[in-house]
Design goal:
The complex is a heterotrimer of chains A (297), B (417) and C (275). Chain B contains 20 helices and nine strands. Chain B has 417 residues and is an alpha/beta fold. Classes of the chains: A mainly alpha (297), B alpha/beta (417), C mainly alpha (275).
Amino acid sequence: MKSKRQKGNFHQILAPLLFLLPNMFIFLVFIIVPAFQGLRMSLMDWGVFTDPVFIGFRNFAELLQDSVFWVTFVNTIVFSVSVVGLMVVSSLILALLLKRNTLTGERVFRAVFYIPSLLSMIAVGIAWRFILGDEMGVMNYLMRSMGGPGVPWLTSGRLAMMSVIFVSVWAGSGYYMVIFISGLQAIPTELYEAARIDGSSSWNTFWLITIPLLKSTLLVVVVLGTIASFKAYELIFAMTKGGPGYATKFIVQQVYQVAFMEDRMGYASAMSIILMLLIGFFTALQFAFSGKDQSYE
Amino acid sequence: MKKILLLLSVLLLVSIQLFAAGAQEQKAQQPVTLSVMWFNDANESDVFLATIADYLAANPHVKLDMQVVAFADYEQKLKLMISGGNPPDVARVTNNHLAALISSLEPIDGYVADINAVKAQFMPASVAFALDDAGKLRAYPTEATANGMIVNKTAFAKAGIDVVALSKTWTWDSWEQAVRKVIAANDKIKYGLALDFTPHRFSTMMFQMGGRFLNENQTAMGFNNPGTIAAIEQFKRYHDTGLIPKSVWLGSENPAELFQAGLVASHIGGSWNINTYNKNVKDFEWVVVANPKGAINSSVPGGKFIASFKDSKNKVEAQKLMAAFSDKAHNEMYCRDTFNLSSRVDAQVQYPSNMADFATFKSDLEKTPPFTANEWKHPVVNKVSAYIREQIVEVLLGNITAQQAVKNVDVKGATFF
Amino acid sequence: MNKQYPFKLILQYIIILLLAAATLFPVFWVAISSFKPQSELFRFPMSFLPDEWTLENYQNALSQGNFLLYFSNTVFVAVVATLITVMINIMSGYALAKYRFPGRNIIFYAMIATLMIPLQVIMISIFLQLKRLGMLNSLWGIIIPPAATPTGIFLARQYMVNLPDSMIESARLDGGKEFTIFWRIIIPLSKPIIATIAIFSFMWRWNDYLWPLIVITDNRKQTVQQALANFVGQLQINWSNLLAMTTISIIPVILVFLTFQRFFMTGITSGSVKG
């Protein structure tokens, strides 16, 4: 590394900065500056129409005692960890089934599994309310017309959580399937040939060849999936409105409610900073676990 | 790769063409263009334009720039625009919006000759919503809404009950006896009542039981009172005994859909449901009835308004337009075509159908005590209402008692005073 | 492999077909319901197919508001934004993958971190910023600010890390300029990831609601998603229009996906690179 810098290569420093410039400029103006304002606002007491008053860390102190916030905190983690876990598995299975380019109808199937990711969250919420609704849903209608009792998919707290997890996995798997397929196709086929000649079982091939070579893709999927699931809001709100009670209420919904219904922007900013730290913690963990990244060798 | 580029550029070209066509239209500038912000339940923005067409024809220098925003984000969008210093010239607002935004609205007082004459044209509850702390009118009432009960008349008839006659004097007890008979007599009817998943609709029952949100002179919370507790407990009992489907308050299912499907005997919704049911219910007869009496007779008033903002750019023209839109003839036309109750006391709206149903809502509204409007216009009630909803659900789930819930609400509400 | 295990292949087909049916069921339900008259939507007993097929919902949805204009606005935003996003993200991804310069890791992690900020909270600050820059009620206000997507940079970087350094080095020795190397060597090698980012960006822009909500109020500048959201009122929901419009809005993205997928899925083998 040092030898390269010794070359005094002007291009090695200026060129990448120029390449990064448009992106960094947009980030700076539209995300970073507003975000720092948000950070400052977390130390203020203010509503949309009132002047901010500096109150130090009192918002954070209040958060520690806010039982509703901690319920949403735990819900968010439970939801996110479950969704990411299930989604990695489901999207990888889909990718493995549809990776080879020779299967008849493969392109159509990929599109089919990708369709849920194409829908706006409004549409997804509508579709699943039609299916899981207690009285008016198709599932319960079928179960009852066969003489069974209905299942309270969205009415019982535990089932409602499972339902929103399931639907989130349904809605996201196609997206990550696409990323996995790209990753899988970059694995040289010779390696599989060699494994086959050595008589390795497909189970062993999967764990010894596919998974290790898919590591950088896995990291992308896990990191993006984690961040997206921590920020999930529209779909869950459309399905359950956070209920029953607090059962599927997550931090983002609480932030929204406090900011715009209770008009406490400072307190909401403090909550969202906790959310960011939480996401940051999980993401850092994932980067750490992924071990050495090929690029930094 | 080339194909992608080709496709992209074709799409781009097409959209630029259409885009340019839109931009050219804009160039034909007129002396005043009022920006009008609206949200739609059905087709209100179109009806507004049709209603005001004659005014615009008579005033060719006025042009309207309609901005329709989805209701779910309407308040937030208005707040963004106000805090950014560029609110629209005219906006349609609800009574809830008024509670949050009234200080940003332009008082009407300075623009009309006799403000008291204007106030006298509208129902007292509607005026109450639009008054600021100093008693200045800041918005023109347009439509009024009333919460009330709509019943499946066919199902009641099948149980041998003349629901229209019975409802003239019924109490919650006689209502309960009747719907239990209805459930027994109809295979399809599973429940007695569906009540919208909002604190506003819940407050129908609460006010009837003598409950309230705030203390008498609105200086502090007063949710912890016998009437409110009785209402929550009755509500829970109805859930526990299968009279109300759990799926509405616990699973956020839409009660209007349950009623349309013919699964519930009665629905506490409001005057806006007439429009929906008129279009969608084909399998049975339904009718609006008086609310059952608890400790008192009460509906809950609500409504829509039209207002201009302190920072609006064309306030004078905006006020003229609003005044014209709110006069008797325009208001009657607008309410008739949107199928709503009018806020004007002198309006004689000739609806194409359902005259009796509207009359029932109106008479329920007349029996309603005025403090209900004053409670619902209070900013703290609006801020704490999401929490109230959550706490009621906690009671329904059996996690806390009604007594604990009302205490929690009072503690939370106190932080906003 | 397939010839050796025809049974396994059939089993895979069955699994795929079952999963596909389960995946599509909710979408079908929405699409088929859009052909039901409003009064049939919430009727008991239910029926999957409409008793009476009708196109009335489509006529209503298309005649209300200015559908064609919303549609072309959305196409304009999605296409232009995708072009910009792909360009600047690929550039950034390349810089982060193939150059060693001080602060590289910090910039990379900072960009990922911006993904963690919940937009809802900084909405007011963003709104004020856009106002200062005069970008409100302009389609450029929806296009530019979210064009720098951390997701795109992340995908681009992870892909380009695996490109061989040797090609770049030898091009440098031949006296290639940095930008020429990027344009002539890196871009052609990165086609699959370009296509992936393009399709993700297009889909996201097509469905995005939050940015148009912040930026646009003018009716002539609204997007399809805003028009969709307008069908849900305070007290009533215009189900028939909503279902019809939702169905229409899905069709273009499916077509785009079907057209483009061979570029980013099969295309990868032709440009296959072995790290």
